[in-house]
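Today's session is about reading a structure prediction critically. Students often jump straight to the picture, but the first step is always the sequence itself: look for stretches that repeat, for charged clusters, for runs of hydrophobic residues. Only then move on to the predicted structure, which in these notes is written as discrete structure tokens rather than atom positions. Here is the chain we will use throughout the hour.
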Amino acid sequence: MSLITVIGRGHSGTRAISHTLYASGVFMGRSLNPSGDKIPPQAMYDACRVMAKYVKWNGDISWDFAPLHTVKIHPEFKTLIETYLADVLTNNSAHCGWKIPETTLIYPWLVRLFPDIKYIHWIRDPRDCILGGHKTDDLRDFGIQYPATDDIRRRRAISWLYQYELMKSTPKPKNYIVIRFEDFILKHEQTLKRLEDFLDIPLARIVVRTESVGRWKTDAGCYHFAFFQEAMAENGYL
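Below is the predicted structure for this chain, in token form.
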């Protein structure tokens, strides 16, 4: 069985790849919500909280992720992940996978537990990503400390940065690909071909909407933060 998962923050457009995989015959879990998330999510949420205990907050918007890559993985974490993925891990389909944005919050330990998974790193311009609300906006819900703020956009921006830095700190698994949401929309056929070569399966074509790209350009609120600069440059958004 080939296992596939999507690593990307909520509101980064991951439902597009989840729907694509599902339409292509990949078993994505017994129950999915309209966003293509595998549900119920409680065991995944609890696993996030277990791993978060090993993240050290340095103050401001800085975290030390180093212990995640060396400390012994807590047995409770393994049990929770196996509980969440029970239907996927026991399915007889040739290709199985799942998508839920909170997977990003456990990425370092997931790679250690499942080094052979095919990981799709999904990224979206943070200026678009923070326009809508998501459960991971308040990282404290998952046991992660950050500077308290009543500014919801800043809270989302910090969540985006945390998850990006967490992904960046994790040693790359042997099977991974980086896909920009914007390329999936604006260079759909070309990007699908890259994914087909990576996954070694033919992929269905779903309807994509170009108006989902660059929404920040007509937004009246705050969508840009100075701490986005480095990540935006690294991913071609400047």
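Discussion point for the tutorial: The longest strand covers residues 2-7.
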